[in-house]
Amino acid sequence: MHFIFPKNYDFKSKLLGIIDYSTAILDLIIGILIYLLVNLIFENINLKIYVFTSLFFPVLLISILGINKENIISIVIYMFKFFKNQNIYLYKKNNKFHII
Q1: How far apart, in whole angstroms, are the C-alpha atoms of residue 59 and residue 72?
Q2: In sequence order, which residues have a C-beta less than 8 Å from that of residue 19 and are 6 or more positions away?
Q3: Cα–Cα 20 to 30 A to 27, which of 36, 65, 70, 83?
Q4: Distance CA 79, CA 40 (A)
Q5: Mean pLDDT of the chain
Q6: Tens digits of per-residue pLDDT, 58-90?
Q7: Are strands 14-15 and 19-20 parallel, antiparallel or unpaired?
Q8: Residue 98 per-residue DSSP state
Q9: Under a CB-based contact definition with an 8 Å cutoff, are residues 72 and 62 in contact?
Q10: What's the rounded Cα separation, in Å, for the pair 72 and 70?
Q11: What is the CA radius of gyration of the chain?
C-alpha cells in the first residue's frame, strides 16, 4: 500500500505509536536518575518500588498524554525560559492598572 500524506502534515515516528523517541529517551534518563536516587536512600525493596513508581508515573503520564499535545521537551524548554525571564511589569495607564 502507498499512503499519501498532505504537505502540512507533521509525520513523526513514535515508539509503540504513543510516544516520540526523543521523549522516550528523556523519560529513560529521568527514570535512571530516580532509580539511582531511590537505591541510595532506601533499603527496603517494597519502599523502593513504591517511591520509584510514585515519582516516575506522573512523569510518564505527562510524557504520554502531553499538555495541549506538546512534546515534553518543548514544555521543559518553555518552563525554563519562563523561570529564567520571569518579569512582570505593572504600569498605570488611563487610571487603570495593566499587568504585562
Answers
A1: 9
A2: 27, 63, 64
A3: 83
A4: 29
A5: 77
A6: 888 887 777 776 777 777 788 888 787 776 655
A7: antiparallel
A8: E
A9: yes
A10: 6
A11: 21
